[in-house]
Amino acid sequence: MNNTIIDSARVDTPVGAFSVLAGPDGAVRAAGFTADPADLLPLVHPSLRGELRQRGELGAVTAAVARYLDGELTAIDAVPVEQHSGGTFLPHAWLVLREVKPGEPVTYTAYARLAGRPAAVRAAAAACARNAAALFVPCHRVLRTDGTLGGYRWGLPVKEWLLGHETGHPERQRS
């Protein structure tokens, strides 16, 4: 771990606590539905880790989350994200995922095609699985080919709520 300070904050949501880690420049390095921001640190690439500092809020980052929760679904789109991986496909795939619109989920097959590698469905699924910046890099918007939810690091009830929130039906059950 280097001597960089990583700011952390927690936001209450209808599906539980949502924690965010941001670097000195304000870019999100990790985010997820956990009450303990320290749970997110192992998801951060080792080159981006640092010492956690708890804050009450993270300015534009937590404001964007609040606006998203209030129904301004594109509020999170402008929040900068910083993730690293060992290759070139994952960072590209994460950028592509940020272009998937709220309320318009795609399948893993369609996501692979959007990322420029139509035969790489497993690589597309790996990009979702290795995404540390949940919500800001909206891996919850990727579904199985048959339209079912598939997996989600933070649990299927959270994924279901997010998809419902983005279609204006947070109470609707999907499976």
Describe how the helices and strands are arranged.
Layout: E1 5-13, E2 16-22, E3 28-32, E4 51-54, H1 60-69, H2 89-97, E5 106-107, H3 108-114, H4 121-129, E6 142-143, H5 156-166
Parallel strand pairs: 1-4, 5-6
Antiparallel strand pairs: 1-2, 2-3
Helix run count: 5
* Rg on CA atoms, Å: 15 Å
Oligomer classification: single chain
State the helicity in percent bands: 25-40%
Name some characteristics of this structure.
alpha/beta, two-stranded parallel sheet, globular
Give an account of the 3D structure:
With about 180 residues, this protein is α/β, with parallel strands linked by helices. The chain is built from 5 helices and 6 strands. The strands form 2 sheets. Strands 3-2-1-4 form a 4-stranded mixed β-sheet.
Quick recap:
With 175 residues, the protein is an alpha/beta fold. The chain is built from 5 helices and 6 strands. Helix 2 (89-97) crosses helix 4 and helix 3 (108-114) packs across helix 4.
